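Run Transcriptional repressor NF-X1 through structure prediction, thanks.
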Amino acid sequence: GSLIEQLTTEKYECMVCCEVVRIVAPVWSCQNCYHVFHLNCIKKWARSPASQAEDGNSGWRCPACQNASMQVPKIYTCFCGKVHNPEWNRNEIPHSCGELCGKKRQCLDCPHLCNILCHPGPCPSCPAFVTKSCECGQTSHSVRCGQSTKIHCSNVCGNTLNCGKHSCTQVCHAGKCSPCQLTVQQVCYCGSSFKEVLCGSKEEFSDGFGSFSCQNICGKKLNCGRHNCKQVCHPQPCQLCPRLPQVVYRCPCGQTPLSKLLELGCVERKICTDPIPSCGKTCGKPLSCGSYEFVHTCESLCHEGDCKPCSHTSNIYCRCGFKKKVRLLGGFFLFLIAAITFMCDKRCNKKRSCGRHKCNEVCCVDTEHKCSLVCGRKLNCGLHRCEEPCHRGSCQTCWQTSFDELTCYCGESVIYPPVPCGTQPPECKKTCTRPHDCDHPVYHSCHSEEKCPPCTYLTQKWCMGKHELRSNIPCHLTDISCGLRCNQMSRFRLLNDCNQCVSCCLTMFFLTFSTWRLYLHLYTPLQRFLWCHKLYLMFFFFRIAAISIATKLTDLQLGDSVEISRLITKKEMKQARLQCDEECLALQRNRRLAEALEIDDNSDPFNIRSSGPKYSDLLKEDARKDLKFVSDIEKEMRMLVEAVNKGKHTKKSHCYPPMNRDHRRIIHELAQVYGIESVSYDNEPKRNVVITAVKGKSICPSNTLTSVLDKEMQSRPPPPIPHYKQTDKSSGNIGLSRPLKEEPVIDYFDVQD
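Sure, done. The structure for Transcriptional repressor NF-X1 is below.
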């Protein structure tokens, strides 16, 4: 009715163009939501990309209800779809044909067509009356055709249930009846177990011997009447006795027929309890411990019953393969269980996936080593900790959220919830409203820090000596100096009050001895003054001594000696002397002997000092192996010593590239000869040596190591012919005795190696 009124009065608007739908304008009506659009507008909309469905294959969507349609409307039809391009009639509904609608109603049960004139919108419900039965079908009622409600009576359903034996006891209901809920008792095939099942279920089926298998041994008497059935509870009749004479044709191992054994004189079997003759051969039946490649067989003589356990042994390794043990096979399943359960006590030392914790699992076979601990690191907010499993890299941002407003101190700037945890208060451009120590104007803006910036307002303040009033001084400055002499009275003045004097002394020297408080008041004022002055001088001396020692520590770290005799007393110096050891006593004896013989320390009567440096045998041996390397090292050292002795600098250093331990030892030994400092740095394999030449300390020896080796080579006699020792006289083969393996040489100079 609303659609008819709006279309007739031309008040209905098209949702695409938002224009009024005229009476004579061609239109299209959606069959799902019944909205009316201009035909041209709906054509343009259907071709536009915005109208396409999400999957791209379901056509275009209605602008009102989003119902997808495959075909684009092309023809102007009436609402019932019978007439194309209907003409407008003043006495009829606009855009209708004026005939009966005839469309099928939305109700699925209604067989009647719409019987009103062509109209927009959905068809009204069917006005016809029909007779319908209730859900159980026992009663019937007259109702409207379009009524969708179900009819229920008050009678019992009474329909047969799924079991086919019982009837439904529920009141008239919709849908199928529920399965039968009664229970019946069933017996197993062997008759030893019982159970209850629902009536009509599949488990209720019985084949006459029973209804189910209890999975126990049957135990029924066989046809022989002497043995019981050893099969699992089964539905069919039990088999014949396997020991009947007419069933057994071979010996227990199966290698020899009983007919041959009867020819050899064995007793013929009459009943099933008679023993089966043995052939006397090895049993040879395959045991359960074997495999497809290696089959283990029974080694006992032909026998009845089960075979003995396997006597072979096998190595069982733990899960990680670290330990093994020897075990009897016994049976394949027992061996398999033992192999699975055998574990060593070794703990895994590998890092877990997080990179922080060790695995520490016993007999570990894991390859990923996932960490099951909680991370627990502090998140970026600084308040909460990470609750994720332990992981590598940075933690995620804190997921906690506050639903309270976050404001600045003055409350002008606000961050509305939800506010992520760790969010800083918003910036505010208003002037700070916190209480300040002074009354000067505030020039800084509102802030979230507890302490305000210092006040920079320019004021006038007196200097510390009260000499002059200084101008343009920021408010936060307190100690102001005018640059003149202080001229104030010293704080170590004559004090009349004993307590004040003690307080002064304690403040300056941090004394905590109670004796000062007990006995100082016994002295006269002049004596108290002298004591204070003496303590002040002691404090001043100790302070100067500490500063002097601190400045000398720098030279001490560089290797220089420090003279501290002026800083300590003679008594302390005497107490601090080192005790003379054996080397010291030897030097004293040599000094006294030189004085007795009037020998000068600088003299060299035996030409010892001018004979040149002494190179160790080990250094010479290493130099012969790599003469070019030693020659290059000596060349670098000579150039470094000459440069530092001729230049302005007191020290010069040279860094060698990374090298092995033997080459570093050669450099350390040569550095001692040249008076050069040498230190090794870094770790293997990038360990290198740095040498430092000091002016006045480093020297260039007269004879280099390469020249010494050349002289020794020239003066050395030719090597003797080697004699070989015969090791195998019987065979006549001559074996050469191998040289002994040299012991590794320890690099005592490379202290960090």
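The chain has 13 helices and 19 strands.
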